[in-house]
Design brief:
Blueprint (H helix, E strand, L loop, with lengths): L2 E4 L6 H12 L2 E4 H11 L2 H12 L5 H11 L9 E4 L5 H14 L5 E6 L2 H9 L1 E4 L5 E3 L19 E2 L6 H25 L2 E5 L4 H13 L1
Parallel strand pairs: 1-3, 1-4, 2-3, 4-8
Antiparallel strand pairs: 5-6, 5-7
Helix pairs in contact: 1-8, 2-3, 4-5, 6-7
Bound molecules: BIS(adenosine)-5'-pentaphosphate (AP5).
The site of BIS(adenosine)-5'-pentaphosphate (AP5) has 36 residues, from helix 1, helix 2, helix 3, helix 6 and strand 6.
Amino acid sequence: MNLILMGPPGAGKGTQAKRLEANHGIVQLSTGDMLRAEVASGSELGRQAKKVMETGGLVSDELIIAMLSACIERDDCRNGFILDGFPRTSRQAEALDRMLKEKGMKIDHVIELTVDDGAIVRRITGRYTCTKCGTGYHDEFQKPAKAGVCDKCGGREFTRRADDNAETVRARLKAYHDQTAPVIAHYRKKGVMESVDGMAAIDDVTLALNAAVSL
Ligand code: AP5
């Protein structure tokens, strides 16, 4: 089963992709995570991406399409994948259509998590992850059972993303409305677009997604 999870910054794509990965044995492919790994490695791609990500803009379609194309053929994607953060422009959506056709693959579900713009800054500025294992938390909505200790690995160091500040979030939200809204129209036209209420509590969103992908 191959899925596309869409939604604005902070909609819960990463949170839910990790749960879908665990529940359905399919692999999360997050272009944001891939780019952050490139930035951390100091690669040329990372250097180019860093400047764009810090301003909340979108990295060039060429770089993203090349990066993603290599991933969907990986052995660990045989059971399926969840595209998280891709496609984000009409060009990326058209390139994905071509890529899938060439590889004889298809997308089974395209699901948009709908969230009010007003909730987004609060969600993003409260987000942090365990430095050791990457488990995600939130100051208000998803706290570890014991303050300062990761539920999953016991780690005590946490990281906040460089682009998770109010100013950059507003730019990311604008990029979403300007450049990613046409992608939703692209999948609506194909009749494969589904919506899930991303304003519901995290566990309820997971239930709704599990129901949507089981149909
Ligand atoms: P990316 O990493 O993809 O960021 P994003 O799309 O802005 O999405 P986020 O990761 O911020 O949010 P999310 O929806 O995953 O929310 P999360 O689950 O963490 O991209 C970063 C940058 O990389 C882009 O700005 C761009 O520059 C570049 N880039 C990436 N892909 C690209 C592409 N294809 N083309 C060009 N450039 C690209 O949840 C957020 C917080 O809210 C968490 O703390 C969570 O605990 C909490 N939360 C989640 N769900 C709920 C809920 N239901 N109720 C309450 N709290 C919740």
